[in-house]
Design a protein that fits this description.
alpha/beta, Glutamine Phosphoribosylpyrophosphate, subunit 1, domain 1, Rossmann fold, eight-stranded antiparallel β-sheet, 19 helices, globular, binds fructose -6-phosphate, aminotransferase, EC 2.6.1.16, GATase_2_dom, Glutamine--fructose-6-phosphate aminotransferase [isomerizing], glutamine-fructose-6-phosphate transaminase (isomerizing) activity
Length: about 600
């Protein structure tokens, strides 16, 4: 989604901004731009398309010591150069970048800016005109910015430069992430620490409703009433090397390969030298006091929630409900008496999930965020955090975060179930079973060549495809269908195998790929029966099956793992199938159209 970078006090501003924008590319965007200035000159360069297109337009003369840059994922107005940020005020004096959505932009335009001329269709252009409007009413830039912030409703992270004061960047945030980086002799602004890690690992968090004045050697944080706020920087513990692709052609493949190592790292992070699970006691106490767990998440994280329901319920005996964030906040079901909320979110920034957290916080319900990003918004705003320790996930299609989320909830369930003295939890040897699952993942990952052939055979030209399964296999089907559709653009759906005959089977025609996931001995015969039903109607069927249930002719054989951990292994072939089908179709695996890595608008 949209990204912001800014820098003040460094003569190499252009290069640092370009580099920062490149680091934000993975988040998804469709246009980009930078504003750079020194005392005498200023430059505004914008482009539709990739950062490389923008860089091609940035001439040698575009140099300065202050600047702001932006990658835009279109919300209001098409992804054109005109709508790309930065935007300028009516006279051109103020320059602004913005992430988020201004909800009352029509009212602001009608109430304050009826006489102004606008060149694009963005809500951002209205915000920068508004700042100038208040300056024309006699306010200083700072006061005008503050007044504008009070008038603006919606989500935003802003970076503002006044050409009459080329030593200051004004920033503010509400619901959209923004950080200040403290570098050696200069300061930076970014919506994601990764953008500026080459400059510094010292960052200041900004909270909603705060405005920050950033100069070369000072950072002043205030609330909108002008009260000063003191805050210590934190050290971002991200290894830059983790962000590199190395010898891999795509991040997605690297991240699929990293899954077994992530499992082993999580075992190390969450167990002591005796193999005992270590989870914060306060978190366990809070869960012990609850009568129902509500998992709230979007997309792949939601699928991970479904795939984890069984392990939580079996090991803890606490009922679990899994909900879509975008639905839950506005359509809240009747809650139990003592609910506990778990927010699953790789990025920790998903606006749909955050709006639910804000509501459950207001209602006073306890919450845990399970995330890959320390210090992320959902992590800061929930009562407790469990980290995935998966390393940065750069590919838009989430893979290692999915399996790490299931592992994290398994670890939590083991600790909770033991605390409740549940026999299944006491008998579950977490270190051993997660280790076996990690080995099983390795086995599947080593089958790349075979899976590549299958992807070419089944999915090179098809318009649609189906995954089917029952129970956990159904939840994994939903996830691998999401993987396939989001990067290969094949219309793929995951269905409960038994449901197919109640309607969806009408879509099956000659050659339609239908891939069955079979890991449960009880339902295996039924799913096999469903595969035969579609086969006799022309479907091109594929069987992904646990070794102990396999039959001659089955194509992908899964190593046997603990029944509660089957999704960790059964998801891998589907991830690889999506990857190779996308390569086969000549598409960019890491940057699928229309998608963003971190979805910071509702
Ligand atoms: C799909 C994918 C998305 C995310 C979803 C939630 O591969 O990555 O469906 O899972 O946007 O994101 P997080 O987990 O960051 O809240």
């Amino acid at each position: 989604m949209c990204g912001i970078v800014g820098i003040v006090g460094n003569n190499n501003a252009t290069k640092i901004l370009e580099n920062g924008l490149e680091k934000l590319e993975y988040r998804g965007y469709d246009s980009a731009g930078i504003f750079v200035a020194d005392e005498a000159n200023d430059y505004l360069v914008k482009s539709r398309g990739r950062i490389a297109d923008l860089e091609a337009k940035i001439g040698e003369d575009v140099q300065g010591n202050i600047g702001i840059g932006h990658t835009r994922w279109a919300t209001h107005g098409e992804p054109t150069e005109l709508n790309a940020h930065p935007h300028t005020s009516q006279s051109g004096r103020f320059v602004l970048v913005h992430n988020g959505v201004i909800e009352n932009y029509d009212d602001l335009k009608a109430n304050f800016l009826a006489e102004d001329t606008f060149y694009g269709e963005t809500d951002t252009e209205i915000a920068v005109h508004l700042v100038e409007y208040f300056v024309e009413q006699g306010l200083t830039t700072k006061a005008a910015f503050q007044k504008a912030l009070k008038e603006i409703h919606g989500s935003y992270a802003f970076g503002l430069v006044d050409k009459n004061d080329r030593e200051t960047i004004y920033v503010a945030k509400n619901k959209s992430p923004l950080l200040i980086g403290l570098a050696d002799g200069f300061n930076v602004v970014c919506s994601d620490a990764m953008a500026m890690l080459e400059q510094t690992n010292q960052f200041l968090e900004i909270n909603d409703g705060e405005m920050v004045i950033v100069t070369k050697d000072a950072v002043s944080i205030e609330d909108y009433a002008g009260n000063q706020i003191a805050r210590e920087p934190y050290t971002a513990k991200i290894d830059l090397a983790d962000m590199e692709k190395g010898t891999y052609p795509y991040y997605m493949l690297k991240e699929i390969d990293e899954q077994p190592a992530t499992m082993r790292r999580m075992i190390g992070e969450y167990t002591d030298e005796n193999g005992q699970v270590v989870v914060e006691q306060d978190l366990l106490d809070s869960l012990l006091a609850s009568d129902r767990i509500y998992i709230v998440a979007a997309g792949t994280s939601n699928n991970a929630g479904h795939a984890s329901k069984q392990v939580i319920e079996q090991l803890t005996r606490i009922p679990v409900e899994v909900h879509l964030s975008s639905e839950f906040g506005y359509n809240m079901p009747l809650l139990s008496e003592r609910p506990f909320f778990i927010y699953l979110t790789q990025s920790g920034e998903t606006a749909d999930s955050r709006q639910v957290l804000v509501k459950t916080n207001e209602l006073g319900y306890p919450s845990l965020t399970v995330t890959n990003v320390p210090g992320s918004t959902l992590s800061r705003e929930a009562d407790y955090t469990m980290l995935l320790h998966a390393g940065p996930e750069i590919a838009v299609a989430s893979t290692k975060a999915y399996t790490a989320q299931i592992a994290a909830l398994t670890i939590l369930s083991k600790a909770l179930g033991e605390a409740k003295e549940i026999a299944e939890a006491q008998d579950f040897d977490l270190v051993q079973e997660l280790g076996i699952a990690a080995n099983g993942m390795d086995v599947m990952i080593s089958e790349k060549a075979m899976i590549q052939e299958i992807a070419a055979d089944y999915l090179a030209t098809t318009r649609n495809a189906f995954y089917i399964g029952r129970a956990e296999d159904y939840y994994v089907s939903m996830e691998v269908a999401l993987k396939l559709k989001e990067i290969s653009y094949i219309q793929a759906e995951g269905f409960a195998a038994g449901e197919l005959k109640h309607g969806t089977i009408a879509l099956v025609e000659e050659g339609t790929p239908v891939m069955g996931i079979i890991t449960d001995p009880i339902t295996a015969p039924h799913t096999r029966g469903n595969l035969r039903e579609v086969e006799s109607r022309g479907a091109h069927t594929l069987v992904i099956v646990s070794e102990e249930l396999s039959k001659s002719g089955d194509q992908i054989i899964l190593p046997v793992v603990h029944p509660l951990l089957r999704p960790l292994v059964s998801v891998i072939p589907g991830q690889l199938i999506a990857y190779y089908a996308t390569l086969e179709r000549g598409l960019d695996v890491d940057k699928p159209r229309n998608l963003a890595k971190s979805v910071t608008v509702e």
